Every structure is written in C-alpha cells, then in structure tokens.
Amino acid sequence: MININDTDPNDLLDKMLTLRNEVYEEGMEYYNRWEPSIGNHDFKNSALNLSHYLALRRRDIRDIQEELSPWGLSSLERLESGTMDTIDAVISSLGKITGRNVEPICYPPKSNFTTGREQLMKNAESLFGKCPDTRNTRIMVTMPSESCKNYRMVFELMDRGMDVARINSAHDDPDVWEGIIKNIRRAEECLGKTCKVFMDIAGPKSRISWIFSGKNKSKVGVGDEFILTGRKNVSTEREVNLVIGCSSPEMFEHLLIGDRVFIDDGIVEGKVEDVLDEGLLVRVNKVQAPKGIRLKVDKGINFPDADIKKDVVTDKDRQDLDFICNNADIIGISFVKSAEDIEFFLSEIRNRVPLEKINGIPLIAKIETIHGVNNLPEIIMETAGRRPFGVMIARGDLAVESGYLRLAELQQEILRICEASDIPVIWATQVLDNMVTTGIPTRAEVTDVAEGGAHSECVMLNKGNCLIDTMCFLDKALERLERPFLGPVIDTEFFFKCCL
Fold this sequence. Notes:
Number of domains: 3
CATH topology of the largest domain: TIM Barrel
Distance between the termini: 35 Å
Shape: globular
Number of helices: 17
CATH superfamily of the largest domain: Phosphoenolpyruvate-binding domains
Number of strands: 17
CATH architecture of the largest domain: Alpha-Beta Barrel
Strand order of the largest sheet: 1-2-3-13-14-15-16-17
Largest sheet: 8 strands, parallel, barrel
Radius of gyration: 25 Å
C-alpha cells in the first residue's frame, strides 16, 4: 500500500504531463485518420474522445492511478466519456497541490463533463425513441410467434413498458412478422405511444436444420454420441440413436477431430470424435441439466475452434431484407466482425432503399465474436459517423466463441468503448431467463439486470411463458435502479435511530 509521504506530487505531475502529451498526440493521429469518413457533425466530438481514450488504453496506467489515489485523485479509473478533460482536471489539481504553473492546461468547464452523457442520451433517443419518464433504460422484447395473432399480448407488453419490439428473422416468416407489426401499430394508436420495431438478420449462424432420433426424443446427456451432418438426410452403420442436420454444410470442410461443438448457446458441449463420410461423430462432454437436454430444430450450433470465414449476409438474409427494409425501424446485423462487414451489408441495402434514405437507416451491430470486440473502434468510426448506430452485446454466442472465462472481461470492454464514443448499448441474451421460463428470477439474474441497467441504454428480454410478468418486474427493477442517483436509498432517520 502506498503511503502519501512516499509519493512526490511533483514527480506525479511530471508523469501526468508526459502521459497527457503522449495521449493527445497519438489520439490526434487516430482521429485524423478517421475524420474524413465522418459525415455526421454531431459524432465528431465523440470520435475525438474515442481516439484519445484508445490512445490512453494502449498504456498501463495502473501505477499512476495507485499513486494518485492517496491525493484524492482517482478519476482516471472512470474517464471514458471525457478522457482529455479528466486528465486536464487531474493535472490542474496537481498544479494546485505543488504550487507549479501548468498553464495553458486548466480546469475544464463543468459542462464538459456532462457533454458525453448528453450526447449519448440524444443518440439513444434517435435510435430507440423517447425514453420513459420513470427510467433512462429502454426495454426491448423479443416477440414470440403467437404475438402475430394475440393482439392482447402485444397491447399488454407495450402498456407495461416495452419500448422496442424485436423480431428475429431467424425464426418464422414474413406472414408472421407482418402480423406482429400490425398488432404493434394498432397498440401504438390505442395507447398513444410509440414502439420501435427492431429486426435483425439471422446472419451466418449454423443451426440445427433437422433431427432424427431412434429413442429418447432427441435428448442427450454426458457420454452420449450423435452424428452431425450437412446433408439433408443420411444413413449410417454406426450404432448411434441421434442424427442432427446442420444448416451450414460448408462448415464440415474445416472441422477436425478434437474440435469443440456447442449447441444452443453452450448448454450442450461436445467434441468431434471422428470424421465420417456421412458427417462428424460428436461425443457429449457437458450438459447444463443433470438429466440431459432435449435438442430442438433451429437452435444454434457453434464451432469455436474452427476459423471459418463467411459473408455477413446469407442467401436467406437477402430474401428477408426485402421485407425488413420496408417494415423495420431499426435493422440489426448479426456476427459483425469488421467495418468491412458493415459495408458489405450496406451494399445489400442499397439495392432496396433509395439512395437519399440510406444514411438515415438506424443500424445495430451485434457483437458476438472476439474479432468483433477487437475491431469495435473501427466499426464504430466507420458507421456511427454516417448514421444512427448502436451495439448489441450478444452474450450467448460471445460466451461460446470466446469462452465463459473471458465473457465478463469482453462485455466490459464493449461497454467502455461504447461509452467513450457515446454509442447506445443493448444488454442482451438470457436476461431474467429463469424468470421468463418459470416466473421466478434467480439472485444472479437480478444482479445481472442491475449491471445491464446501470451501464446500457437498452435491456433485452427473450420470449417465454412468463414474459409479461417478467416485463413488469424488469420495468420496476430499472425504475428503482435510477433512485440512488436521485436521492438516498435508505431511511436515514430510521438508520440513525437504530445506531443510537
């Protein structure tokens, strides 16, 4: 532990001045490289701050932070939305402590420290619509198929707090989607409120296309084996009771013995035991439920050990975009790994939308791979500089692709980069998942809501049997999370009486 007497404030000031000079110069190099592609004037300050933040993050400043703390100057730990202003404030304080003249550096105006937050709120409103009066975090709900015909469900969801309705084009078809949107527009008119329609393309995700089961109704447990194939049907001499069709036959050219296979966001984990003429022999190593998991058609399949390059837009996506471009308020792009993926997606949009409307289409990049996290600054710079833009932390695939050990680290990295660039974030995947299914939340789920609600602009619920009750719970939970910022959260008078 550092003693304040061991820390010379003059040495600290010299270190901070050196750090400031390096961060400023390197940050300006980044910004000057990106600035020509920024068409949106409102994004320029955000881009400049992100540039300086990235320059700072390239340096290990843990020792400086520890030395600053005894002097009451620990703000370098949370400077995402005002990087240079925070550094200047610290330097100015050290100048007062040491009596040294640090001009032209001075304390930034107080308004500088709220500019980033204000811009973020403005960007969130342009993306998701006006925020409710009781909370600053929007609620997005993945619409179940039955909401196509169940107007009452849609009405209740909107009446009780849904701000954005998500339609996942990986499921159902345009007839169902059209029915859902009609019910949303009808409820909007009835309630006198707006609800944005967010539609995301399925993207290059492998899924279970069909299942043949000899027994156990496609249930698998630890030690079971099954054949995974890219064919439409298959016969085998192997003694296996389960054959699973994969929607991406091209994957099998890249898979080797020992490669891992994850199904349904990792609730089933297996390993390739053998490569056969008819497909892959996979042995199950782990399942989430002790009594086994029943596999279902359309559930996702991940191959985290295989380096497979695929276009971000598939043939199915091209068909779906004909509907999405004419009906969605916000379009989501799955498995974004680079700025080139965004440009490839936009090339498809240009074939369906008038040129003058292209830059007005709000886009959401779903970040679900390590490549996407590593390239996030470039993705933001190349996209947010021209149109309304947000990021979804798609934690299901991100956890499988990166490994669960790195999930917390990566989602925090995404949150910080987005805060530094004033980009709205959607906290997604398995939010209150147990409550949506059973009606009862786990303690970890409630904590997850607090994390997501405090650090994102939108929280997403998936569909389930207890969706409306979960929707009400989330609405109240997010409302209560705002209270610590408005006043005390405990009865102080009662507390002090107890102390006496």
